[in-house]
Amino acid sequence: MCVCGLSAAICIGGCLEPSDSPGKNSWTFENELPNERPVGWTIAATKPTAGLAKWQTQRDGDAPSNPNVLALAHTENYDGAFNLAIAKGPAFGDFELTVQVKAVKGEEDQGGGPIWRCQDEDNYYTCRFNPLESNFRVYVVADGKRRQLGSTHVMTRSERWYEIRVRMVGQRIECWLEGRHPLSVTDGTFSRPGHVGLWTKADAVTSFDDLRVQPLDAAAQP
User: Fold this and answer.
1) Range 24-215 has CATH code 2.60.120.560
2) 3-state secondary structure of 20
3) Which residues does residue 127 pair with via DSSP β-bridges, in sequence order?
4) Residue 186, SS3?
5) Which phi-psi region, left, alpha or beta, contains residue 179 (left: φ > 0; alpha: ψ -120 to 50)?
């Protein structure tokens, strides 16, 4: 286990200095250099089929907090590979989370969403929308194997921003897309606090903005 709280297997980008990490609970990417991976983020993958995806800060004039977003700009992964960008810093237990997500393209898969209570690249929760499948789902990934916890039918499209909101207290998970289409499930796979981050599958190219976390328990653990 690295001092940043991520497993050594995924802490490939080095650690934040201790003074940078406590209390960090929002990411807008406005102060990041374009076309570079933002400071304080680790890139990883669950069961990669062709290596790690390329994540970078990009300018997007339609972004909720204009101009910068964090984008998965390129990946050659396919099939059951999950692409991850994990925020270093505090680990969250009970919380509310919001993030803006825009599906850009992808032939096999599109869209994406947040991850939370992330222990390492093979163990976390995620929810996501997929314009190709017209659904919104929540999953648990344990030991690299994904299990669906809930699903609902939604109509979404690429090149449009959508807000995903997640609330987890204890074993109760609630997710909303644009404040609607609620998913409410119970799962006890991960009870420990974990990191938050961003997720896509296979060849999905996706942009993310305004990731914000509000702890609902004691202060987030550095």
Assistant:
1) yes
2) helix
3) 138
4) strand
5) left
109/105 Cα distance (integer angstroms): 8
pLDDT tens profile 137-179: 999 999 999 999 999 999 999 999 999 999 999 999 999 999 9
Q: How far, in Å, CA of 209 to CA of 194, rounded?
A: 20
Distance from C-alpha of 222 to C-alpha of 215, rounded to nearest angstrom = 13
- Burial class for 15, CB neighbours closer than 10 Å (0-12, 13-18, 19+): middle
- Report the C-alpha gap between 152 and 174 in whole angstroms: 13
Tell me if 54 sits within 8 A of 73, measured CB to CB: yes
Extents of the domains making up the chain: 24-215
In angstroms, what is the C-alpha Rg of the chain?
16
Q: Whose CA is closest to 77, among 48, 47, 103, 42?
A: 48
CB 219 within 8 A of CB 193: no
pLDDT per position as a tens digit, 84-135: 999 998 999 999 999 999 999 999 999 999 999 999 999 999 999 999 999 9
Contacts 24+ apart (CB under 8 A), 130-137: 130/103, 130/156, 131/103, 131/156, 131/157, 131/158, 132/106, 136/175, 136/177, 136/181, 136/183, 137/183
Do residues 142 and 123 make contact, with C-beta atoms less than 8 angstroms apart? yes
**How many helices (DSSP H) and strands (DSSP E) are in the chain?**
0, 15
Alpha carbon of 217 to those of 35, 93, 169: distances in Å? 36, 7, 8
